[in-house]
Amino acid sequence: MHPRDLSDHSPYVPGRGVEEVARERGLDPDDLIKLSSNENPHGPSPAAVEAIREHADRVHQYPKSSHTDLTVKLAEKWNVEPEQVWVSPGADGSIDYLSRAAISPGDAVLVPNPGFAYYAMSARYHHGDVAEYELDPTDGFAQDAETVLEAYGSERIVYVTSPHNPTGATMSLSAIETLADATAPETLVVVDEAYGEFAEIDSAIPLVDERDDVAVLRTFSKAYGLAGLRIGYSVVPESWGEAYARVNTPFAANELACRAALAALDDEAHVAESVETARWAREYITDELDAPTVDSAGNFVLARVGDAERVADAAQERGVIIRDCTSFGLPEHIRISTGTRTETPEAVETLNEILAELDLGVRA
Ligand SMILES: *Cc1c(COP(=O)(O)O)cnc(C)c1O
């Protein structure tokens, strides 16, 4: 007795964890700087932590009002109807809900390469096929409508990541509109704004209200620092609203996650500080790292170092965990998440030492 043929399904490769690396290298976890998973170096909002404590003794009950309250609060924030907000376990959960709502067997999705692995994984779970559009490294991985449309073949969902992971590049709102106009009425353009807070461009959410073929993903994992709770959402066209009840996992998000998200939304100072630090740190990395970088609108910077595996390995040995982008199809690139104002310069100094020692023939 075996599972079905899953040979097409590649497992998700996460950034390396602190405990994992510390154990392997015999290092003290407290001495490690973890810049591999685009997490918030300031931690969660203290208000969110307080909300988790306050509601901990109620977790024997299914989440009901917290989910409703969060949906309503998000709808108010974005000026949409509550039915248009699909709360989910991480934005990844929303990707699954959209797959379930959109993909019939044999339908396809169009995803960026390099890009976030879960779009394709989710499509395949739902018996969909996957096509790719290529982002060009010699062009700063630029994301414009033409690049996507050249590869477009009437897929059911077209994914756009803005800011893009792992490059940090954005797609302008006008390009997203051009793309949505040029694709078939039955194609949903999904704009993944997991890093939207860090960018200096507007959200695509107003487009969702104007038209019926654009949806937007958002998460509490990055700017809000709640990655461990798994809480995110999508904003979908009004005509998609009632599909949520038909595709979601019962009690889609957990009680503590909803409570923490509600509190985090009110803690504007925490988000503002997180965004400010990320913007400072991405400038710092871009200016100071001795390697060519891509301009980033996210809380990370992609750098071409020549041999990602060797650099990531050497960095780990010295207590700095960064992301080897080989699994993104970029074996010459590393992705460095933005850290605090003390961690970031330390990490860059370590990386510069390594780049000088390995001398891989790539210069800033
Ligand atoms: C981190 C990330 C997400 C979602 O993360 P969740 O933790 O599931 O909310 C979605 N898209 C991209 C591009 C990401 O980097």
TrEMBL record:
Pfam families: Aminotran_1_2. The keyword Magnesium does not apply. It is an enzyme of class 2 (transferase). It comes from the Archaea. The keyword Transferase applies. SUPFAM superfamilies: PLP-dependent transferases. One of its GO terms (molecular function) is histidinol-phosphate transaminase activity. CDD domains: AAT_like. Its EC number is 2.6.1.9. Belongs to the class-II pyridoxal-phosphate-dependent aminotransferase family. Histidinol-phosphate aminotransferase subfamily. This is Histidinol-phosphate aminotransferase. It comes from Halorubrum laminariae. The gene is hisC.
